[in-house]
Amino acid sequence: MLGVGYDRTLGGLEMTLRLRDILLAAAEKQLKTKTPLRENARAMGKLMKEAERLKLVLSANADFIAQIENLAEDQDFKLKVGTIINLSIITKTITIISLTNLISFSFPR
Predict the structure, then answer these.
(1) Residue 91 domain boundaries
(2) Cα separation of 24 and 60, whole Å?
(3) Is 3 contained in some domain?
(4) What average pLDDT does the segment 17-33 reach?
């Protein structure tokens, strides 16, 4: 064994949070609300739930339409999500894994 490395920030929750942030950014562009969506706990909960569902669907399918009814102020949200978004998230995760491995091999035990 050459070394041991780990990163506590990696996992399914990290993917879900990144997907939620992508959905949030798209919703802020698409919907015009009086209060920011980040300050609306109910809207953030709905985005988190849809991000979790999106993660599961994108693991098996190439494209998916994320839909949330009544996201904020009686406005519906709809976004077509494809593999490009999933690949960008995976690329960021692989970069983190590579850095973790590089650090673990730099310090012999």
Answers:
(1) 12-106
(2) 23
(3) no
(4) 91
